[in-house]
Amino acid sequence: MGERGRGGCCPPMDLMRSEPMQLVQLILPVESAHLAVSYLGDLGLVQFKDLNAEKSPFQRTYAIQIKRCGEMARKLRFFRDQMSKAGLAPAARSLPQAVLNLDDLEVKLGDLDAELIEINANGEKLQRSYTELMEYKLVLQKAGEFFNSALSSAEARQREYASHQSGEESLETPLLSELETANDSSKHVKLGFITGLVTREKSMAFERILFRATRGNVFLKQAVVDVPVIDPVSGEKVEKNVFVVFFSGERAKNKILKICEAFGANRYSFSEDVSKKTQMITEVSGRLSELKSTLDAGAVHRGNLLQTIGEQFDQWNLLVRKEKAIYHILNMLSIDVTKKCLVAEGWSPVFATKRIQEALHRATHDSKSQVDAIFQVLYTREMPPTFFRTNKFNSAFQEIVDAYGVAKYQEANPGVFTIVTFPFLFAVMFGDWGHGICLLLATLYFIIREKKLSSQKLGDIMEMTFGGRYVIILMAIFSIYTGFIYNEFFSVPFELFAPSAYACRDPSCRDSSTVGLIKVRDTYPFGVDPAWHGTRSELPFLNSLKMKMSILLGVAQMNLGIVMSFFNALFFKNSLNVWFQFIPQIIFLNSLFGYLSVLIIIKWCTGSQADLYHVMIYMFLSPTDELGENQLFPGQKTAQLVLLLLALVSVPWMLLPKPFLLKLQHSRQQGDSYAPLPDAEESLRSEANHDSHSHEEFEFSEVFVHQLIHTIEFVLGAVSNTASYLRLWALSLAHSELSVVFYEKVLLLAWGYNNVVILIVGIIVFICATVGVLLVMETLSAFLHALRLHWVEFQNKFYEGDGYKFYPFSLAMLDHEED
């Protein structure tokens, strides 16, 4: 399939057939291979083939370089995370500096990475010490307050006891005085205490567990810390309580320590001595001020380092990604036995031949290589990739086609017709020039600001809407056009092009009936006469008009699809498809539904009252009966008999001859004992590729069954596809009736109350309903139905869509890709 063409500059864009492609072989000296691949990446017109598919990634020549690039990319991602945490963004434009090579950049990134890690580690240690000292200060303050209050309470009780000693003894006088108890050493109880902080949400559970573990032999005192405290372990702000636990004995102490550890309570030492406590608070405050100044200096240093990184981040990131992409391509090349040359194979458009040769020559010159790279075209039976050169206008239409399937190499492209037919069929279902203007204004916003919006990250839905902005603007323009035809502006008719052709015979005809209307002027020049709107005959009239129009449009588009299959057969020189596919298909479709379309046009032109349902049904049930009042033209009965006979003959015409002729062709090829020898190069290519189509055996039964399925599908599809186009009528009717409901039952109803508040509410409801239902949901519904008509009813007549896209190696695409 590959073919040689003249090189040179890009030819004019042609969307009907994909670009002629060629399989090229490049023999690159090792010293210039890297630069050559880089220049070809800048060119973006070569899709390289993987010649080392049998090797694992670790067995390839440049695996070490890719690993180095991956490590550098990891460091750059680390820098980006650190900058985002610090609230910094990479500079929009890197400052101009000397271009670094990969080795220098690796050393520089390694030094910066080590320095930043060290700064972070030191900062974390200092921050942890700072938060611990802050907690320690809180413990000293809160626990000190507790001990001070306990001491003052004890002194008060002692004074009260001393005053009672002078009086008479009473029942409340203790049996043993404190002095006697103090003199008896056997009655001393030694109490210990532990101080610290515990999170407030765990404080109740902490107290309960302590009580149960020690069987109530502890005394716990908690004080609430007013402001959240930064936890030294997690680094997050947490609400905490200061606690003091009094206990007796080592066993109780061990239990309390384990419970503190389980609850994540931070413990701190505390002295009962008031003078020592004051001294410790002073020392802690001094150390906190020192740590604060050290942390501030470290943060400034870290910010300066990240600022320096941010100035060159984009340049470094792009360089690493480009180098990784280049080495990935180099790993796809095979190395010759002498290990002095790399051999590359890939697809490129024929028009790019001269530009590729220039890029290779420039790489040889710039790398000061003694040997020039070799460029040659290979001949192969392998199917080339499909490449359509699109622009920002038609790329969205091409994506609509590609979503169904990528065109086979140089197959007729439905995207050419989709540019017109897709928005037109949408507009047939959406026709309202008021709604069309709303769509147009919304889309113009995207088009006017497309430069700014294209550089921003939009949401998923906004991204899709922005990508299809040129599809939507054509949909809007065609909707305005069909809205003029339907004469609907938010369901309201206007006498835009001339006064109505009808007028009332007398005032009694103003009861929404056309009985009293008479024609007083020339026919309304464009679209539906506004007099039809609001009458009892409006719905039957518009139903008949839109249903017949849908059939005409459907038959026309299906005929276009069959005609495109004829041009495909001519292009690929397949005479069997011309004689035994195109001709019987065009005869069958037009013998039935082409004839129906002609009857519709004749009925419109003549004003006949013939029943077309009756004509089409009895054309099959009783073809020899007289038509009577349903006759639309002389000789109609004979014409119907001939058309019915042609439709019946075209079915076996499609089914039988093609499989037998294919079998005859195959037997002739098998009987040819002698054939011209191919070129050595072509022989090697065909042996290497083992094209499945050229080597698979001919199975007559499979071919016959395939043709049978294809015939049945077309015959049944001709009926179902024609009926499927009636969705144009159904959705147009639904859109029109919804517009009427919102206008009459919301806007006019609110207007009739003569109340400003109700009117404002009604206008708001009308706007919300119009935007939400008609401009969003109905737009999406009509879009999907138009999509189905193109994919199923139109494209299945000629479009195979079993190709694969051309994905060239392009360094320019790296800017738009995520890591």
TrEMBL record:
Belongs to the V-ATPase 116 kDa subunit family. The chain crosses the membrane at residues 424-448, 469-486, 549-571, 578-602, 638-656, 757-777. It is a multi-pass membrane protein. Essential component of the vacuolar proton pump (V-ATPase), a multimeric enzyme that catalyzes the translocation of protons across the membranes. Required for assembly and activity of the V-ATPase. InterPro entries: V-ATPase_116kDa_su, V-type_ATPase_116kDa_su_euka. Pfam families: V_ATPase_I. Its main location: membrane. This is V-type proton ATPase subunit a. One of its GO terms (biological process) is vacuolar acidification. One of its GO terms (molecular function) is proton-transporting ATPase activity, rotational mechanism. GO terms for cellular component: vacuolar proton-transporting V-type ATPase, V0 domain. Keywords: Hydrogen ion transport, Ion transport, Membrane, Transmembrane, Transmembrane helix, Transport. It is found in: Membrane.
